[in-house]
Amino acid sequence: MLKYFLNSFFLVIIFSLTLFAQVSDQQKLSLAENFFSAKRFADAANLYLELYTKHPENLVYYNRLKESLVASENLQPLLDVITEALKISPKDIVLNGELADIFFKMERRDDADKIWDKIIRENLKTELAYRTVSILKISNNLFEEGIETIKLGREKMQNPKLLSLELANFLLAKLDYTRAMDEFLLFIGDDANLYQTVQFQIFKIPNTEETIQIVNKKAKEFPNNKAVLEIQASFLFRAKKYGEALKVYAKLDDFNQANGVFIAGFGNDLLQEKEFKISKEAFEIALSKTKNQKQRLEILFKIATCKEGSGEFQDTVLKEKTTKGAISDYLEIVANGNFFQNEASFRLGSIYLEKFYNSQKALEFLLPLLKNQNQQVYFSTLLKVGESYLLQNQLEKAKALYKNAVFTQNEPQNKQNLILKLAELEFFTGNFDSVKVLINRGVSLGLQLDFANDLIGIGLILNSKDTQNLQLFAQAKLLARQRSFEPAQEIFKKIEASGDEQLVGNSIWENAQSLKVQEKFVEAIKELENLQAKLPENSFASKSQFEIGKIYEENLKDNQKAISSYEKVLTDYGTSLFVAEARKRLRKLAGV
Prior knowledge:
mainly alpha; two-stranded antiparallel sheet; 33 helices; 74% helix
């Protein structure tokens, strides 16, 4: 109510001032805008007409007058204004164009066409004539007629680029992407500087085979145009035609004399997409062009990362030709440079620990990194050192490492992670009272942190009253972590027959996870299905169904079965905590 009262009060004040002829143009404009917003278009038009009559050079007043009269379906005052103006300037192209526009809006199509035709006929060599007529036709949804006017202008003025940018934007607005792309490229021509002015619009155009063909054709037409090449490279990248894009980026790097920087950027983009093979090719080209030692080491690090991602860890020999693996590249970085030594050492330690399970070799690279707590990889290194000790069955050493680190970490998430690690170690060694203390301590840091659920999960296991099997379960979990899978499986199967629901569920789950680590994915799925059959009403059932979907999606790359598995989570376990994530993965697999 207050808003309407204030508006009414404002209008009363303005009208009072009007009576005394003291209203300024700005006040009239404000009042007209209020009328327009309130859909009192006739009242707004009266004020705009007064303002435009006083200031005929002000296009803002004219355009708002026109909008108001169109909205009020009363174009006669506007027709009178334009008619009077044409008495002074009868040949004015813009005024004649406006007259035709008014006739068209008044449904006097024949009169509009006659004026538009007259404008073109009398101004065959004037760009403004074609610009005015084509834009007015297009704005009145006479789209193809507007394009024909542009084509005529290009022919008569011998300017093949005439209105190309305007037409491109109109076509883009109509979602006519193929013709829009053609016009944008026509506008750029062989002038790379024009690319910046249309870059944003161009990348609104979706990738299709047709648009890529247009770009490829234009790149052949202008083989030395950097802008066209950038567009070509970008569209090829978006279409995942990475091999073709690589060639274009290599050419761009040559043109820009970027010494590998340009193509290295392309390699980084590919690395984000986990396209390791072609990314490696891009970085190898960049390495061959780079002289700067720091840049060379950075690129070599990226090459090693690509090799690691594609599983090329060790050197291979084929026909007396040696191809270096990731380990050799990382070793070269450790030996020859200060810039990426720590990162390379960390990656070497990680490879030996996680790929080859060689904890002793891993520690050779990881332990020296613990001397400097300020370095970027310190915390991750600390966790991997602890895992190496666990693999060697040096549990007390791992405990001491984590206990000392808890006091030095300021980040709650890091603290909670370390407390989880300590709780697992105490659990493995059967110190269940200590585990309970650690769970309370860790959860108190915040339930929203990443590791709270894992701590609560350990607490649920501790609720089991079957202390004998609980000790066996802890022993089996430790064996599985130390990759002694067969002894661990024997214990899990023994517990499965014990009858304690909580331990049975966890034992089958852990055995499935062990099979997954061993890349026995089909067997892991069977074990998860076994868990559903044994405990259909337990929370493990929905968790298992979701895990089956993940294995199909991430490990077996069977999207159809993954979709079916996730759909089953939605239909059979509608109240499960996994419903939201299952729906998210379904949308991703469906390309939505």
